[in-house]
Amino acid sequence: MMERDQSRMRFVTVLGFAIAVIRVQGITPDLGVDQQHPYVGECGGGSGTAISPRSMITARHVPGLTFEVMGKIYTAVERINHPNYDLAIFNFASDLPVWCPLGASAPIGTPVTWVGYGGIGYVNQAKNGYDIRYGNFGRHAATNIVHKKWSMFNLGPALVSMLDDNPDSAGVNGDSGGACLANGRLVGVISYAFNLRGGQLPNYGFAILNNGIPYHGSGAIDLTIPEIHQWVRANMNPGLFTLDPAFMPYAAPKAHTTDKQLELPLFESWSLLNPNSRATVR
User: Fold this and answer.
1) Are 45 and 63 contacting, i.e. CB atoms less than 8 angstroms apart?
2) What residues contact 71, with CB distance under 8 A and at least 6 apart?
3) Spatial CA neighbour of 205 closest among 196, 216, 197
4) Tell me: the pLDDT tens digits for 111-151?
5) Most buried pick, 13, 56, 105, 129, via CB within 10 A?
6) If residue 191 lies in a helix (H) or strand (E), which one and from where to where?
7) pTM of the shown model
8) Beta strand ranges found along 19-119 (DSSP E)
9) What stretch of H or E contains 28?
10) What residues form DSSP beta bridges with 89?
11) DSSP category for residue 77
């Protein structure tokens, strides 16, 4: 297979903050298996979204070349990593069964749906946050709004949704590369989660724990930014691309089994709102 890697360095080396990964999985809360977004599939232990008859987009830190959607596994003939941001496009030699159009706008306040694969979350006994149940429970979706737009952690411009209360969505392990949708169109690719009170308040806690101010959130790389939107359009497969696999110099990374979700980067720091601060290694 061939990988056209436009990145300057591996994902794990570009992070400006230390990662504290919490081993939880899936979009929370648990609202039942999603039946509305069949174009979101599984990829490299994470998720991905078909965006044209022969193209899929995911997060750059999601490994591999395969994409499982609607019960069938497709292997990409080309992978294109964004040179700066947490995005990757897979192009295929055969048609995908379904795909989602790109959106052009998602201003602050826009209702969004976050979609990905993994486990499920429940409101804890104290009713002040989510507890997570491990395992692969299929595709899940939950809603929120765009609370902020920022560029943090060297991962790219992001749409940010904060966790205020149940049933707000929150991305966790297995959701990397999944969809952030507005009005049925793809506006973001799930990239990371963060805790502005890391070390002081629990991950996936509600705003009630922080005097009514949400402190845990999720970021999706913003596909509505003109530069990013144009990059995606320029690298989407028009449906004509084919190459003999024997001539594709690509060394496949380790495979991820479906029962072990890819860890979603989760940043924890007391002062993450200061872009010049660095998280403490714990």
Assistant:
1) yes
2) none
3) 216
4) 999 999 966 778 999 999 999 776 678 899 999 999 999 99
5) 56
6) strand 185-195
7) 0.82
8) 40-43, 46-52, 55-58, 66-69, 72-75, 78-81, 88-91, 111-117
9) none
10) 57, 80
11) S
